[in-house]
Amino acid sequence: MKPQKKNKNQDNLKTKDLSKNTQSPDKEFLTTNQGVRINDNNNSLKSGERGPSLLEDFILREKITHFDHERIPERIVHARGSAAHGIFQLYESQEQFTKAGIFTDTSRTTPVFVRFSTVAGSRGSTDLARDVRGFAVKFYTDEGVFDLVGNNIPVFSIQDAMKFPDFIHAVKPEQDHEMPQAASAHDTFWDFVSLVPETMHMVSWVMSDRGIPKSYRMMEGFGIHTFRLINQKGDSHFVKFHWKPVLGVHAVAWDEAQKISGKDPDFHRRDLWENIDQGNFPEWELGLQIVPEADEFKFDFDLLDPTKIIPEELVPVRIIGKMTLNRNPDNFFAETEQVAFHPGHIVPGIDFSNDPLLQGRLFSYTDTQLSRLGSPNFHEIPINRSVAPVHNNQRDAHMRMTINKGKTNYHPNSLGGGCPYQAMIKDGGFSSFPERVDAEKIRGRSKSFSDHFSQPRLFMNSLSKHEKRHMVDAYAFELSKVNHDHIKERVCYNLSMIDKDVAKQVADKLGITIPKKVELPLNQNIGADEDPVRNEPKDANHVTESSKVLSMEAHNKGDIKTRVVGMICSNGVREDSLMAYKNTLESQGATVKIIAPKGGKIKTDQGTALKVDENFLTVTSVIFEAMVACDGLDKEVLEHQVAKHLLQETYKHCKAIAILGNGVELLNNTQIPTNKKDPALLVNDEAKAFVKAIAAGRNWQRELEPVVPA
């Protein structure tokens, strides 16, 4: 099965605009909301030039009233987001598993709207917080709207929806002083985590480099929960959904993330917008992990547990199609802010499992849309509107937009000819999977949910050396912000249940000792018969196998497409050398930006004028993937503190550097060591070698050397 090739014609990839008004008058006069043309939009109606404003000024009253009510409540979680339109195309029919047309009809091009987000911060927070990223996809299918509401991490923090408010309350800014913003490095979060060990799997992912992705375009997406696929025969298969980015999976360094947050908190938003605007359309392939109904209890973990993954070595991911984002929103508020996702928006051929967290989300998402958008009619907002016809007897309510005709708004009826009719299953009517349920009503959890440490151990064992080192540093950084030692000790105790060496490294950095036993508060019930914090599990020393795909290293595609490379230049720069590098980099899909002391243009040694993209007043190395010091630099640049800082910071963040000609003088003016073999520091090498160095990824070995100041 071969993936379809990307269509290079941008116009052919344009999706149907679901929100635009098709009317386009030749002249657009300024009007009130009632269509009355306005001839003065600068002055309110007054009694004389210096007199009081008049209450009768209906134009002023309408304008101010609308402004006063423009904001709507932000999302409680996932408030900070960015989005784009696109399409989904299926490679191969999956009719043996599902009757959903989106997964069976290869002739379809299905419009989608995708919103990426951070979880903990407010709308005004930074894109580069260490956090989970939301990855929500709205499919506008011919059978109705299907929302795949997921994250860039494949597991949730808690197992039961009853604990979700507690988890979010704990990670949000502390309620007495509303600090810190968009950060989990504080007492209440780690207090909760230390008392609820089921959080340890997701927290370990967030403490890894997955918690600080390079861009939305370079992160995986996961549906997290186990769903069902239902075929035409009514047969059921369990399924987990995966999004695999075509560009691979990449992250930034933690120091880099902190600097980006200060220099460009819109970094991810800007990256997504600009790449789509330039025609670098982000792409993800959709994969399914499918488990037959008969294999539900085959594994040593529970398929219904949202804190667990299905290792791909046990159930391979079937790649079935590709999603391409090819159009930016026209209006952030109307589309990105008002879009309403819901895991309960499914179509025939897809159904739910008994995952207790999923079951709670099925209620929560409708409830929160009522609060945010103010009406059960949120489905009529253009960005949320189904492309499939909508016919039912729901009427009225706040901000109803559909004008329903006729007498009947009930079913059954004869006055309306019986319309709208119920759909038979053969006509595409939705029918829930007839799962047999025979049980007593209880409040509790299956014992199959009680292993909280094996899978985070699997994750840690799968990381490369530098990834594990970064995770240790992240745990230590976050816990250093915690003011209570007993919380730090509980977290390190839980870590010792996963990986004793990791726990010891974290404890050493914190200057604490891992306790042999942890006392919990009275009546502390964490939802398991055997408390894994009090009683060390029997397999605590067992080394679980690793999974190659859990390391980000396995997802490096080995190319430099859409990477941004900076070239430090000045007047008199050698044109032949510069252009050889620039042309080679751009031929491999990279974006090259000219950096110079001032804005405007520079002249090469051959008199050619080149536009300056970044100048020394505003430039920062963190927006670049690699850096080139060109040949022919003048004395000002060779001795300039900004030029030296660009190279040193690029080196500190382990990125590739190329030095050409007299750029060596600039290198020698820095504190970068040149007496060691460094595959990512190239001096007078060919451009092809530089491309290879960028594609190979960062030289994390530099982190083990004395720190270069930057």
UniProtKB/TrEMBL annotation:
Catalytic center residues: 78, 151
Catalytic activity, as annotated: 2 H2O2 = O2 + 2 H2O
EC number per UniProt: 1.11.1.6
Example of a GO biological process term: response to oxidative stress
GO MF term (any one): catalase activity
Transmembrane segments: none
Record location of the 3'-histidyl-3-tyrosine (His-Tyr) cross-link: 342-365
Annotated Gene Ontology cellular component terms: cytosol
PROSITE patterns in UniProt: CATALASE_1, CATALASE_2, CATALASE_3
Pfam families according to UniProt: Catalase, Catalase-rel, Catalase_C
Entries under Gene3D superfamilies matching the protein: 1.20.1370.20, 3.40.50.880, Catalase core domain
Residue sites binding heme per the record: 75, 115, 164, 361, 365, 372
Keywords: Heme, Hydrogen peroxide, Iron, Metal-binding, Oxidoreductase, Peroxidase
Primary enzyme class: oxidoreductase
All residue ranges annotated as the Catalase core domain in the record: 31-419
Basic and acidic residues bias (residue ranges): 8-29, 531-542
SMART domains: Catalase (SM01060)
InterPro entries recorded: Catalase, Catalase_AS, Catalase_clade2, Catalase_clade2_helical, Catalase_core, Catalase_haem_BS, Catalase_immune_responsive, Catalase_large_C
Cofactor: heme
Family to which the UniProt record says this protein belongs: Belongs to the catalase family. HPII subfamily.
Its biological purpose: Decomposes hydrogen peroxide into water and oxygen; serves to protect cells from the toxic effects of hydrogen peroxide.
PANTHER family linked: CATALASE, CATALASE-B
Protein name per the record: Catalase
Source species of the chain: Planobacterium oryzisoli
